[in-house]
Design goal:
Chain A: Keywords: ATP-binding, Cell membrane, Membrane, Nucleotide-binding, Transport. Chain A is built from eleven helices and twelve strands. By secondary structure, chain A is an alpha/beta fold. Chain A has three domains: 200 residues, Rossmann fold (3-Layer(aba) Sandwich), CATH 3.40.50.300; 72 residues, no CATH class; 49 residues, no CATH class. Chain B is mostly helical. Classes of the chains: A alpha/beta, B mainly alpha. At the A-B interface, α3, α4 and α7 of A face α9 and α10 of B.
Chain lengths: 347, 291
């Protein structure tokens, strides 16, 4: 895992002004999302029946190590998986009550960029190198909102201003290779938010950027989210990013959500041994350097050697005999705090 | 921060910088420009009517009579005028055939590369089949059935030479479609057609442009072949190919009648090839992406 910012726990325990729990239905409701990929002779359970809700104005952080299924979850929600994976996802993805999994490709493409949008990890390659930045913002606006070319160009400059890019008219006429990584990620955010989508999926939006720029981009995302009231699904392997940005956190391990909680409660009192291990492996800037950084023993199980029960059981110090046999249910342990564990840590 | 953003013209300027360093390409561009101009203004520059017969002045050698600067042929027609008008024909055929080739090749290449699967297999096996036949035979077979006009000759040449272009474009698309910006475009709701036309095609422009210049050269050559074999541009209309055909009976006595159109063909083909080479270097995608 990457080097983390110091003082993660300090920021994490601060209460965050999460949007008040509203009686209205969640904006996004994922139920039993499954992506089983046949990899003969095994089946890779890349996403294994995950469920979560996301309300308007809320940020849900989806954390997990590489290969835990975070990005595939996002791609499945956006219905962006390419053949041969495109027909594999099962389950429900309800956006404002509509099941995205049942929509046709044409219906889906009218929603992408408008109702739900996505920012990718690599700002250096996610922009079309031979189209000006302004056009790349304007095109979806023309397509989705039916604005004239002139209005769309004005919207493009307005968006560039909104994401804090200096001299928007000039940048709108520029090609992506003239922009730095941070500027490009700002431009990507401008493109993704130009049609004011109600859901934004950000897949590792800051991983490719250096730490100071990371903080700026996260602040920008949080600010825009407050302003537009969008819900954000923030995917990252970086707990520091989650601590700074998310209201709630879902921790993924081997295709399942193992723990979900408000950010403060997760960082203060992780209940799942995996979450606890993750948090313990964050290096803190301390006067006395510890001899070794605690780490979780073992590796994420491959598709062939997945135990019948909890996927974390072989690496878990608290494993009970039944952990290897039965999948633990995703059970509430405290208000808003769920974990899938037979022998959870104390709260 | 704004200093990091230089003028949008930067990209074109860099391409020109690299192109300029390529001496042969510059020479090629110059020759091509000269040929285009002379073909465009053939009727202005030509001292005589290219079809005017004067049997009293047959086989005038070059540089001996100011009215016939490059001499006359077996029917007393002015060679320079026929070269200029023949150039018009050859370059028209070259350009029209190139456009046909590039359109067909790019269309099939993009469809095969982006759609993949069964569409890719079918299209590429069709390409393989077409490539099995030497182009000259394909040309002659079709030319035997289609009445030879300027347009039909160009189309026939174009429609028998697009296969390489489609392979080049397909390879380029296979590489491009895995790029993040294509996924990003889909995430913004772009349809397949829009992705092919707006995202992929412009990014494949460099290899297509290079292939296009090289195809002009080969189309000029093809026109000469089939005109030489008598299936191409029909007399009395002049083309470099049929000038060569006419000259072959007199090659031992009046060699300049063959040498002059031959030189014109060579010059054109070399000019376009050098231009294409220079463009390829200048537009190299690995250099294009540098920060």
């Amino acid at each position: 895992m990457r080097a983390m910012l110091g003082g993660v726990t300090a920021t994490a325990t601060l209460p965050r002004d999460a949007p008040a729990a509203s009686p209205e239905a969640p904006l996004l409701s994922v139920r039993g999302l499954t992506l089983h990929i046949p990899v003969p002779p095994h089946t890779l359970r890349a996403v294994d029946g995950i469920s979560f809700d996301l309300r308007r104005g809320e940020t849900l952080g989806l954390v997990g190590e590489s290969g835990s299924g975070k990005t595939l979850t996002a791609m499945a929600v956006m219905r962006l998986l390419e053949p041969p994976l495109s027909d594999l996802p099962r389950g429900k993805v309800l956006l404002e009550g509509r099941d995205l999994m049942r929509l046709s490709e044409t219906e889906m493409s009218t929603l992408r960029g408008r109702a739900l949008s996505m920012i990718f990890q690599e700002p250096m390659t996610s922009l079309n190198p031979v189209m000006t930045v302004g056009r790349q913002i304007a095109e979806p606006v023309v397509r989705h909102l039916g604005l004239s070319a002139r209005q769309a160009a004005a919207r493009a400059e307005e968006m560039l201003r909104l994401v804090g890019i200096p001299d928007p008219p000039r940048v709108a006429r520029a090609y992506p290779h003239l922009l730095s990584g941070g500027m490009r990620q700002r431009a990507m955010i401008a493109i993704a938010l130009a049609c004011r989508p109600s859901l934004l999926i950000a897949d590792e939006p800051t991983t490719a950027l250096d730490v100071t720029v990371q903080a700026q981009i996260l602040d920008l995302l949080a600010g825009l989210q407050r302003e537009m009231g969008s819900a954000v699904l923030l995917i990252t392997h970086d707990l520091a990013v989650i601590a700074e940005t998310a209201h709630r956190v879902a921790v993924m391990y081997a295709g399942r959500i193992v723990e979900e909680a408000p950010v403060g409660s997760l960082f203060a009192a992780p209940r799942h041994p995996y979450t606890r291990g993750l948090l313990a492996s964050i290096p803190l800037i301390a006067r006395e350097r510890p001899e070794t950084l605690p780490e979780i023993p073992g590796m994420v199980p491959g598709p062939g050697d997945r135990p019948a029960g909890c996927a974390f059981a072989p690496r878990c110090g608290r494993a009970l005999p039944r952990c290897a046999q039965d999948v633990p249910p995703f059970a509430p342990l405290a208000p808003g705090h769920h974990a899938a564990c037979w022998n959870p840590c104390d709260g | 921060m704004s200093a990091a953003v230089s003028a949008p013209e930067g990209q074109l300027a860099r391409v020109w910088q690299r192109f300029r360093r390529h001496r042969l390409a510059l020479a090629g561009a110059f020759v091509v420009a000269l040929l285009m101009a002379s073909a465009l203004f053939a009727s202005v520059f030509a001292p005589q009517d290219p079809t005017l017969l004067d049997t009293s002045l047959r086989f005038v050698p070059p540089f001996t009579d100011w009215r016939y600067p490059l001499g006359t042929d077996e029917l007393g027609r002015d060679t320079l005028s026929r070269l200029l008008h023949g150039g018009q024909v050859s370059l028209t055929v070259g350009l029209v055939a190139m456009v046909t080739t590039v359109l067909t090749g790019a269309l099939i290449g993009i469809a095969a590369g982006y759609l993949g699967g069964i569409a890719d297999t079918l299209l590429m096996r069709f390409v393989d089949t077409m490539l099995c036949f030497p182009q000259v035979f394909l040309l002659l077979v079709v030319a035997a059935f289609v009445p030879p006009t300027l347009l039909s000759i160009s189309l026939v040449i174009g429609l028998t030479s697009w296969m390489e272009v489609s392979r080049i474009v397909r390879a380029e698309i296979l590489h491009l479609k895995e790029q993040d910006f294509v996924a990003a475009a889909r995430a913004l709701g772009a349809s397949r057609t829009r992705i092919m036309v707006r995202e992929l095609l412009p990014n494949a422009a460099a290899p297509i442009l290079v292939a296009a210049t090289l195809k002009v050269a080969s189309a000029v050559l093809m026109e000469s072949y089939i005109s030489y074999l008598g299936y191409g541009v029909q007399p009395p209309l002049a083309s470099w190919g049929n000038m060569l055909t006419n000259a072959q009976g007199y090659f031992d006595t009046v060699p300049w009648l063959a040498i002059l159109p031959g030189a014109a063909i060579t010059l054109t083909v070399m000019g376009f090839n050098f231009l294409g080479d220079g463009l390829r270097d200048a537009l190299d995608p690995r250099l294009r992406m540098d920060p």
